[in-house]
Amino acid sequence: MPKGIFNVPYAVNEPINSYAAGTPERAELQKVYDEMWNSTADVPLYIGSEQVRTNKKNDIRPPHDHRHVVGHFYDGDASHVRKAIDTALAAREKWANLPWEQRASIFLKMADLIAGPYRAKMNAATMIGQGKNAFQAEIDSACEIVDFLRFNVQYMTEIYAEQPISDDGIWNRVEYRPLEGFLYAVTPFNFTAIAGNLPTCMAMMGNVVVWKPSDKQMLSAGVLMEVFKEAGVPDGVINMVQGDPAEITDICFDHEEFAGIHFTGSTGVFNHFWKEIGARVNKYKSYPTIVGETGGKDFVWAHKSANPKAVATALVRGAFEYQGQKCSAASRAYIPQSLWEDVKNYMEADLKEIKMGSPRDFTNFVNAVISKDSFDKIKGFISRAKESNDAEVVLGGNADDSKGYFIEPTVILAKTPDYESIREEIFGPVLTVFVYEDEKWEETLDLVNNTSIYALTGAIFSQDRYVADFASKKLVDAAGNFYVNDKPTGAVVGQQPFGGARKSGTNDKAGSAQNLLRWVSPRLIKETFVSPTDYKYPFLEADE
Question: Is 424 noted as a catalytic residue in this protein?
Fold first, then answer.
């Protein structure tokens, strides 16, 4: 195996299992899925060495069968949050002083546990609790989290190796200290890998963490904590608390030792966090680090030279995989008039073949959206489009929440470029298309650039290299992850570091060394071997 610096195993992307019919990994995943489906998971709070269960007990219900209970989790109160902070701070000195290779070993072991004995359990928990099909779970809760762990170890060693030059007689060196205080991780429902990465990448750099997972991701969050413990994360380094999000956040933000937040979620929440942190800045020992990846209204723009089948496939995959519940999902598309009928027909043919239902049936491409609130919001956009004079539902549009929160992949044709579903984030299986006149492709790029407050991901399709170059430059600020002749989803750790600008976040590129640098505070040490004993410099000598 090729080696990285300091002889750490060099990170390579975890191979993706196919789960094709007849494969052993498919049989194992189905077995573990059935075991988890027919048992009752119990997910406590994790504070130091304690597993805390309270009288505030909540059901874990699969989004594709909301009448079925697969487990329970517990809400804590203010006392539990304060205890988690105190426990983290008590663990800080010992953890920060642990040699880097000892910390690295823990997270490399964690990666091997998830890639091996925990793989099926992680994937089954993600399928059941978050409504992902086997492939979407595999690329998330197995491969991506493993990649985050292994690549972050490599990045950590590269950061530590980055040292200043030294002149004769002195030695300059940099220590990459963890931040002073505790860090707060707030993670979303839609990616188990994000839930795993946000607390671990901070802890890897020597920090201690209070982690609040989404209440819609608790089944896989519980499995992650099992892995953290088995891998040897010391008590107090990562503490998992759940409960009232506003209360947990307020207590963390109000503590003088609050040193930073790593967040993935909505833009509105992140805006509120930034405001609250700013209002309390005089309280803190140091300026907190604020890292966030938030919303998106991700685009696909096609030129008349594009391959219509490739465009249609990118739209179907980009918009409807995991029910459009990816921050990077294709949500708005700009298609030239000359291609629209072909693109629509290809999409229609695909959507007629696509099956929707439980992830336990591996032939289902589309599953349920995450919750009743999400279902109602998405359905509202579709219903308004059906009634609007400025839009038309051309594909899909049906919804049923009698058993699970199922919404058909839906394509809305916007007759105006500022229709609500082409502007506003929906976070569901809804794609809005605006058809433009072929010769107006340059001004349509202005629409792409100016319609949304977000700048997360975007894609262009063109077989004309001059056009592709022009569009890439024109849209330079429109997306932090920009794709040419490909869908705007599917960023791979180590290959496409992920993050967006504008109101899509701070663009600190998860899956790169840039992100890890946010969680350290460098200390420069200059050591002089033979110290001067005379203050005089040569220029002070008098002329003869």
Answer: no
